[in-house]
Amino acid sequence: MDVAISLLVLSSLSQLVAPQAATQIPFRPTVEVISGDVRIFSRETLRLGCSVPVSYKSGWTFWWFRGSEKLPQTGQNLTLWNVNLNESGKYSCQGLRDSLLGTRKTLKSLPVEIDVDGGWAMLQAPAHSVLVGETLKLTCHLRMRLPLHETILYKDGIEVVRQNGHSQDFYLTNATLLDEGMYSCRPSWDMRGRTHSVISVSTPVHVLEVLTRPLLEIENQSNFQRERRMKLICHVQYNTHGPAPPLYYYFYKANNRLGSASSNNYMWVRQAPGQYSCRATVPVLDLSRWSETRDFGSPQP
Ligand SMILES: *[C@@H]1O[C@H](CO)[C@@H](O)[C@H](O)[C@H]1NC(C)=O
Ligand SMILES: *[C@@H]1O[C@H](CO)[C@@H](O)[C@H](O)[C@H]1NC(C)=O
Ligand SMILES: *[C@@H]1O[C@H](CO)[C@@H](O)[C@H](O)[C@H]1NC(C)=O
Ligand SMILES: *[C@@H]1O[C@H](CO)[C@@H](O)[C@H](O)[C@H]1NC(C)=O
């Protein structure tokens, strides 16, 4: 309802002010990598797509951006042929549709960073962070598709694994926070009786905990008239890929539970000195983490 009204207002204004005034479609498209990878060699080809709501398939044009620069292409899929080093950057897109009320635009997508590598070897790492316990897959590419002799993987400049033969893939199972770092690889190959090798530039790998240790915050609220209360807030970071199973919070005073499990990360309690803590759990994943205990209300120095 609100949208329709603001459209009418804007469209009558637009006749007075700017005939092309575009109104917003409250949808944020996403940029998808259709073929290629976010890290590619120069002179390779990459294709990106801009997603729009499935229920309105036709009548769209698209704007593509590299950083803040608008590109000339207007198709739903952006093909970058024979890429150049200067085509590295953050790509985003925006959809436009003509309607009776003028052109309407979606929000701009979040950017996808494309890294064009001019070297001879390249290490591809996951585009998103790896979660603790997952398997980290790293792939070492050589620009010339020659059979490899051996490939070495380095983390922060130190050799981690050495792999004989043609396989370009490294699998580091059961990732931990210590696996975070800058990775590079050195493939080697034999040609005319000699062994050659090149080293890639470093690629960052980020590792996140699924559930971080909670941090308990206590807000001492002094503005309640009848009963003085305080708010216990349990801060965690909860990282998943895809749908997140439910997360619950428990609050404790001197290790005695206050109330029942809640999907809210806060709880109001009567203002009282004591030892407070909280716990966050994801029962489906069998995860449970305690905060440190906080001492509330001990005499001020
Ligand atoms: C964009 O690419 C996707 C995936 O290859 C394809 O299904 C779609 O038809 C393409 N869109 C256009 C407008 O060519
Ligand atoms: C990128 O570099 C190539 C050759 O060096 C040049 O022809 C092209 O115009 C440049 N493109 C941009 C967007 O700067
Ligand atoms: C993964 O690592 C954790 C912590 O080091 C360990 O407790 C767990 O058993 C490991 N799991 C597997 C499948 O190796
Ligand atoms: C909390 O606030 C009350 C008054 O509003 C005050 O008397 C008390 O000292 C405060 N406690 C702490 C630990 O700040």
UniProtKB/TrEMBL annotation:
Origin superkingdom: Eukaryota
Any one Gene Ontology molecular-function term assigned to this protein's record: transmembrane signaling receptor activity
All residue ranges annotated as the Ig-like domain in the record: 29-94
Gene3D superfamilies reported for this sequence: Immunoglobulins
One of the GO biological process terms: cell surface receptor signaling pathway
UniProt KW Repeat keyword: no
UniProt keyword Transferase, yes or no: no
Gene Ontology cellular-component terms listed: external side of plasma membrane
Xref: Pfam families: Ig_2
Transmembrane intervals: none
SUPFAM superfamilies: Immunoglobulin (SSF48726)
Annotated signal peptide: 1-19
Record's keyword terms, sorted: Disulfide bond, Signal
Name of this chain's protein: (Atlantic silverside) hypothetical protein
Organism: Menidia menidia
Lineage: Eukaryota, Metazoa, Chordata, Craniata, Vertebrata
